[in-house]
Amino acid sequence: MTWQSRAECGFGGLTDMGAYFRVSAKLRIEASGGLSHIKARRLSILEGSLGLLAGRLPMPALPLFIGKDMTDGQKAAFLGENGIRFLSRPGEVLKPGLAAAAEGILPADPGPVVAKALNIGIFRPGDLTPARLREALGLEPSTEPVPDGVYLIQNDLGLGGVFVQGDLEAMVLATSGDAQIIALRAGGAEWVLEFSPARSRTVFRTPEGSFAYDLVPLPIVIVNGKIGSLGGGYVAGDGRVEMAFDGETPSVLSGVDLTIVSSDKVTISSHLILQGVRWQDGVPYAKDSQAQLVIYSAGRDVVSGESRDGGVAVAAEAPADLKLQASITAASGGFTIEGAGKEVQVLGALHANDYSGNGNMLAIVRDERAAAGEFPENAPLTATPQLAFFSLKVLVWKEY
Hints:
Layout: E1 2-16, E2 20-34, E3 42-55, E4 64-66, H1 72-81, E5 84-87, E6 98-100, H2 111-118, H3 130-137, E7 149-155, E8 158-165, E9 170-176, E10 179-186, E11 189-196, E12 201-206, E13 209-213, E14 220-224, E15 227-235, E16 241-243, E17 257-262, E18 266-268, E19 278-280, E20 283-285, E21 292-297, E22 312-314, E23 323-324, E24 327-330, E25 335-337, E26 343-347, E27 349-352, E28 355-356, E29 361-365, H4 368-371, E30 386-399
C-alpha cells in the first residue's frame, strides 16, 4: 500500500486583546492512498480551524499547570501518582492536559489587578506609599499604615473594587435574586457588599453603618492577608449570609466576572458554584453561564512587595465531593487538598508551583468558554510571553 498526505495552514484573523493576541488559522489536510497495483485510490479531505494565543496569556487558558520541569513521561507519572484526571465532553477534539515549566509562567506580581481595583493606575508592589494608599482608600491624610479593615474604593471615577487590609476569617459568596453578595468577616466584625448589575445598585453594610450607591463596583476583591475560609453560601431567613455545603447552591451571579486576589494563603471550605452551569452525565457545562470566578494567591504583600507563604488549600472539613468552578492560581505555596477521602472537581483551571493531594482525587474539566478563547476579564497573566493552542475544530471531513 502507498499513502501520501499534504497539510496547509493559512492565516485566518488576529484580534488584539491588549497583553496578548488571539489568532485564528485555517487548516486543510488532504490524504490519499491505495494498493500499489490498483489505479483506484481513496482521497480524504479534512478542513478545520485552529485557535492560538500569543503574548502574556490569561492563566485560565492553561487547564492545569505545575511549576516544575517535567518530561512527558514524568507528567504522566505525576498525574497517576496524584490521582489527577481530566473529564472530557463528547465531541471535544483538543483534550486538556498538564503543562509544566520551572519558570516564566506563574505570575508573582499582582500589581496590575490591584491597580485596577484601586483606580490608581499601574504600579508595582513596593511602590505604593502608606499615604498614597490611604488617599486611594478615602482615609484621612497620614503616613501611618492603613488600619486593618474592609474598604470599598470610591473616587471621581466611581466605585472601584474592595480592598481588605489584614487577614480575613471568612469570605462567603452568595446570590439573592438579581444581586451578588460578598460577606467578609474579621475580628468579630462583618462587612457585606451587595450589588445588582441589572439595577445598577450597590449596598455596603459595615460596622459603622450602611451605604447605598446608584453604581456597581468593579468585581475585584483584594485581600492583603490570608483568607481563612472561602466558600459559597446563601442568605438565611434572618438576613445572615451562611456557607452552603450542598454543592448545588449558586454563589456567583450570572453576569458577574469576579476576581479574588490574596497576598497570602487561601483556604477553601465549601463549594463554589457558578450560576447557569448545568450537569449532564456527571460533567458540568458552563457555556450557557455568564458568571466567572478567579482565585489568585500571589504569595506577595500587595503593598510592600514582601514575600508571603501564599498557596491555596482545600480544608480538611470541606465536602468530600467538593466542586470548584473557578480558575485557581497559587504563585507560591502550592495547591493542597487536606484531609482524606475527597474527590475535588475543578471546572476551569488550576495553576500552582507545587501540588500535594495527600491521597485525594482531583478531576479537572476545561471551561468551554476557554476553548472558545473567552477568558475572565481580570485574570492574572503569565509572567512572560507564551504561545498556546486553545482550540481545534473540524469543520468538514470528506471521503472520496
